[in-house]
Structure formats: C-alpha cells, structure tokens
Amino acid sequence: MKTKLNELLEFPCPFTYKVMGLAQPELVDRVVEVVQRHAPGDYTPQIKPSSKGNYHSVSITITATHVEQVETLYEELGKIEIVRMVL
C-alpha cells in the first residue's frame, strides 16, 4: 500500500479509522484488540448500526506517530474475518 499520507499528515496526529463489519458482539472487542497492539491507549469507540441492523460501523481515533503505523493498522483491521471495509 503506497500512499502519500506522510506528505498529507504531520505526525504525531489524531487519525480516525471507520471499520464496518457484521453486527456481532465481538466486532468492537476485535477492533480495539488490533488497535491496542499497534497504538496502545484508552479507547472509546463509537458504534453505529446500519439501517437494517446487519452491520455496525466502529469509529476509533488513535494518535498516529508515523505513516507505517497508519498503514499497518489498515491492513490488520482488514484481516478481521467479520470486517467488510476499513475507511
């Protein structure tokens, strides 16, 4: 994943991930678990259900320290089997 994030962002900075996945109870825990491995901290993710309730959107903001951390988290969050999209 070659991006120009390092040209667009000045580190450290707040960075929000929006993770969309199946509406299962473990979704939030799995997202926080992955984020904790790469950016330890105290997180309070925001959860929004889809209109039909089949999916949940989990927004979580980290303090990003470098571009590799941002890219790694995109990849790792996308590997969670119940996740459908990471923005």
From TrEMBL:
It holds the Pfam family DUF493. GO terms for cellular component: cytosol. Gene3D superfamilies: 3.30.70.260. Belongs to the UPF0250 family. NCBIfam families: PRK04998.1. PANTHER family: UPF0250 PROTEIN YBED. This is UPF0250 protein A9B99_12210. It comes from Mangrovibacter phragmitis.
